[in-house]
Amino acid sequence: GGNVYVIDIARLYEHEQMLVFGDLLKTVYSLKAEPPEDREDPVPEKVIFFVDELNKYAPAGSQTSPLTNLVLEIAERGRSLGVILISAQQFMSAVHPRVTGNCATKVIGRSGSSEVLQPDYRFLDNDIKTNITRLSKGELLLSHAVYRQPVKIGFPKPVFEQQKF
Fold first, then answer.
1. pLDDT above 90: residue 20
2. In sequence order, which residues have a C-beta less than 8 Å from that of residue 61 and are 6 or more positions away?
3. Could you tell me how far CA 152 lies from the centroid of its own chain?
4. Is pLDDT of 59 > 90?
5. pTM above the 0.85 mark?
6. What span, in angstroms and rounded, lies between the C-alpha atoms of 95 and 93?
7. CA–CA separation, 137 and 147 (whole Å)
8. DSSP string spanning the chain?
9. How far is CA 79 from CA 45, 69, 105, 129, 157, in A?
10. Contact of 57 with 66, CB cutoff 8 Å
11. Is residue 68 a contact partner of residue 59, using CB atoms and an 8 Å limit?
């Protein structure tokens, strides 16, 4: 418990990235899905996957693959098993709608007007969509059911860029 493992696949070829990512998802999901009495070794209570450019593994559209189906399974049922998927991508509209539809929390950075006009952003009113196109570096909108409206958040500048007062 309490251990963090990072598996950086950035330097692998794309097909190797898909193989490693798919194997990790399948192995962890299978472990978490089996009944506790059938497990030989202890399994972490929660496993969190941080994925950059999830649209590569679960793209929008009618294309399906075993990897896409596995990502959909985790997006739809993973939380109840303690498997959590956090992803980042520039274009939410490029991710399979069943994945984005199952997201409880959305964090949105500056996007172009053509992106915010996509159906994935229909939960935002037009004024907020306009403001998304004007966000500064480090500013994001956080959308979650506990808030009536999206909340603007900002990351502070790194310490070496901050001015003393």
1. yes
2. 96
3. 19
4. yes
5. no
6. 5
7. 23
8. ---------TTS-HHHHHHHHHHHHHHHHHHHHS-GGG-SS---S-EEEEEE-GGGTSBSSS---HHHHHHHHHHHHHHHHTEEEEEE-S-GGGB-HHHHHT-SEEEE----HHHHTSGGGTTS-HHHHHHHTTPPTTEEEEEETTSSS-EEEEPPPPGGGPPP-
9. 11, 16, 13, 29, 33
10. no
11. yes
Q: At 145, list the tokens.
A: 């059911």
CB 85 within 8 A of CB 49: yes
Length of the chain: 165
pLDDT confidence of residue 161: 76
Gap between the Cα atoms of 29 and 78, Å rounded: 8
Pull the structure tokens for residue 136: 């500064």
Position of tokens 């985790």?
74
Place of tokens 């959909």: 72
CA dist 118 → 57, 115, 129 (Å):
20, 6, 11
Please give the span between the terminal C-alpha atoms of the chain, in angstroms, as a whole number. 42
Nearest C-alpha neighbor of 106 from the set 150, 64, 163: 150
